[in-house]
Amino acid sequence: NAGVTQTPKFQVLKTGQSMTLQCAQDMNHEYMSWYRQDPGMGLRLIHYSVGAGITDQGEVPNGYNVSRSTTEDFPLRLLSAAPSQTSVYFCASSTPYGYTFGSGTRLTVV
Amino acid sequence: EDQVTQSPEALRLQEGESSSLNCSYTVSGLRGLFWYRQDPGKGPEFLFTLYSAGEEKEKERLKATLTKKESFLHITAPKPEDSATYLCAILLTSGTYKYIFGTGTRLKVLA
Q1: What's residue A95's pLDDT?
Q2: pLDDT (tens digit, 9 = 90+) per residue, B80-106?
Q3: A10/A105 Cα distance (integer angstroms)
Q4: Is the pLDDT of residue A94 over 90?
Q5: Which residues of A touch B103 (CB under 8 A)?
Q6: Around Cβ B94, how many Cβ atoms within 10 Å?
Q7: CA distances from B60 to A107, B41, B64 (A)
Q8: A48·B104 Cβ contact <8 A
Q9: Which of A28, A30, A33, B91 could form a disulfide with B31 if both were Cys (CB 3.0 to 4.6 A apart)?
Q10: How far apart are CA B6 and CA B12, in angstroms?
Q11: How far is A105 from chain B (nearest CA, A)?
Q12: Which residues of B are less than 8 Å from A32 in CB distance?
C-alpha cells in the first residue's frame, strides 16, 4: 500500500545544475500536483495535472517543468537550479475528498 | 481574493490542557475544507474533510467544526504525541481541484 512515492529524499545541487524529482502513485488518481514548502509561506502549488497528457501551472511555476505521460508518474524537472529553489518539495495525488502526500524531497541549492 | 488564514502560528499546551486552532477563510466558493497533520520531515497526513456549515467530524482527541467563515480544530486533553503542525486547506468550487493551504499552526504539547 505505497500511496505516493517520492525520490530522492535529499538532494544537494550546485547553482545551474538540472535534476528531476520523481513522483509515482498507485491509487489511480487522475489529479497530481507538486508543492514547495518554505518556512512561513505554507504550501505553494508549482504545477498540477488533471490526467495523463494534461498539465498546468500553479502559483510558482517559474524554473520548473513537468510532464505526465502516464497516470502513475508525475516528475518535476528543475531546469537550472538557483538558491531560491532551496525548499522541501511535496508531490501529491488527490480526489475531491483530499490529498495523499509523498514524504517529500529536501533540496538544497548551493 | 481567495485566502486562508490560520491562527495562532504556534501554540504550547500542557498535557491535558484543551484548546482550539482556528482556520478562517474568504473564498468565492467553498467546495470543502480539509485539515491535515504534518510531523517534522514528513508529508501532511489527512485528518478531516468538512463540506457545509454546521458539520462536525471527530477522531480521537480531535474535533473539527465548520461555519460559513471559519473552521476550528478542537483538541481535547492533548497528549505529547499530538505535537505537530496542523494545516488547513480549502477546495474551491471554481477550477479543477484547486486547493489553497494555510501556513499552519505548530502545536507543542508538553508532558
Answers
A1: 81
A2: 999 999 999 998 876 666 788 999 999
A3: 5
A4: no
A5: 40-42
A6: 10
A7: 35, 24, 11
A8: no
A9: B91
A10: 16
A11: 9
A12: none
